[in-house]
Specification:
Blueprint lengths: L5 H11 L26 H59 L4 H11 L6 E8 L5 E2 L8 E14 L3 E14 L7
Antiparallel strand pairs: 1-2, 1-3, 3-4
Helix pairs in contact: 2-3
Amino acid sequence: MLPLTPSLISLLLVADNRDQRGTDPSPGPGPSHSRVPAPPPRAQGRRRARGQRGQALVEFALMLPALVVVCFGIVQIILMLRADSAVADLARQASQKVALDGRCEDSCLRTLIDRTGLAPAALHLAVTATGADGMGHALPATYGDDVVVQVTYDYGLDIPFLGHLQRTLSASATQVSTTFQGS
């Protein structure tokens, strides 16, 4: 560790006060310490900087298609996860509706489907009721029956440069019917 002497401190301050052109702002004694401008930047360095900018542009142009594919892929995966959540929500709502009412007409199902925002043509619903004896029967469901709703949805992934990929999303929900027979 060097001791901080006044001459060392003044030397550090002089080195710290140099401006960007490389000149020494402190007037020193005699002509040897007069301001001397820094040498001009070399022309070769400027050409290299321009070449590096061009190289960066070429690298960006080469990476851009891959970035676009990744971004569109992420968006499609997010949309597919949203559709998967809507399918599960539809199964839960339909089973709850059938468990409470004993049945669910087409108009009721259409209302539930329209709320999800899914394409009705790609959606398939199967509603079954299972009695205490374990045997399935047609609706209306009676008190104590297990109401099972199975929903499948054909979802198409559209990813640029990869094309159209088909995926089937499915969900099922079970509720116990609370409807008394004859009500």
